[in-house]
Specification:
This protein has 193 residues and is an alpha/beta fold. The chain has helices at residues 2-11, 23-27, 32-45, 62-72, 131-142, 161-167; strands spanning 13-14, 20-21, 53-57, 76-79, 91-98, 103-110, 119-127, 146-156, 172-182, 185-188. The chain starts with a helix and ends in a 5-residue tail after the last strand. The structure holds guanosine-5',3'-tetraphosphate.
Length: 193
């Protein structure tokens, strides 16, 4: 998506060869116009699928997921990174290891909001090694829900997430695919997915 690639170049910064900072548009301050354009692009891609729910992971996935859910007119569920004390009903959980942050957390989602008949669009801000996506997929499998597609704002194509998800049979739609970040330069993959 040209608009996102331009925003990454103009307003993002390279932390190191593996980590991109986009706090001014996605991860801290949110650019609502860009976010809406990204959600529109995602929904356009999935318009012929009968999506019944949009699922994401707190925190940065919530903004794009909510805008997608509004456009698709379906509920949005965000999976939590710790089990809330108010959760009384059955919860599905999955252990996730973040290589970027070198930490583990337990992802959880209530059985009240994830159902067997759900056709889920999974949305997240970044795709690196895919650990967060696989955690979310594990929870959705426990709920017997179907994952129709996985929409990502920024994919770091030099890491293994995309390949691992496709190998498992999932459709991955990324708005910007970064091939490499070296010497202060961001190179995007060719547009074909
Ligand atoms: P993975 O799920 O694809 O394996 O990625 P990983 O565990 O390594 O990523 C952990 C967290 O770091 C996630 O956010 C992910 O979105 C974020 N992340 C990964 N690579 C980058 C990057 O290059 N830049 C930025 N800004 N973030 C990256 P999180 O901990 O869930 O954060 P949040 O959603 O609460 O903001």
């Amino acid at each position: 998506m040209k608009l996102l690639e331009e925003a990454i170049i103009e307003r993002g910064s390279i932390v190191n060869d593996e980590v991109l900072k986009v706090d001014s548009i996605i991860n801290h301050q949110i650019d609502p116009i860009l976010m809406e354009a990204m959600a529109n692009d995602i929904c356009d891609h999935y318009k012929d699928k009968k999506i019944t729910k949009v699922v994401t992971i707190e925190a940065s996935g919530i903004a794009p997921a909510l805008l997608c859910a509004m456009k698709l007119q379906v509920p949005m569920v965000f999976l939590k990174k710790s089990k809330p004390s108010t959760l009384q009903e059955k919860a599905y959980t999955a252990q996730v290891h973040s290589f970027t942050k070198n930490s583990d957390y337990t992802l959880s989602g209530s059985s009240s909001y994830l159902h067997e008949q759900d056709q889920v669009l999974l949305v997240d801000d970044f795709l690196a090694n895919g650990e967060a996506c696989f955690g979310a997929i594990s929870i959705l499998k426990q709920a017997k829900a179907d994952v129709v597609g996985i929409a990502i704002l920024i994919e770091k194509a030099f890491q293994k997430g995309h390949e691992r998800l496709v190998q498992e049979g999932y459709e991955v739609y990324s708005l910007a695919r970064i091939k490499k970040m070296e010497a202060g330069t961001i190179t995007f993959c060719d547009n074909e997915m």
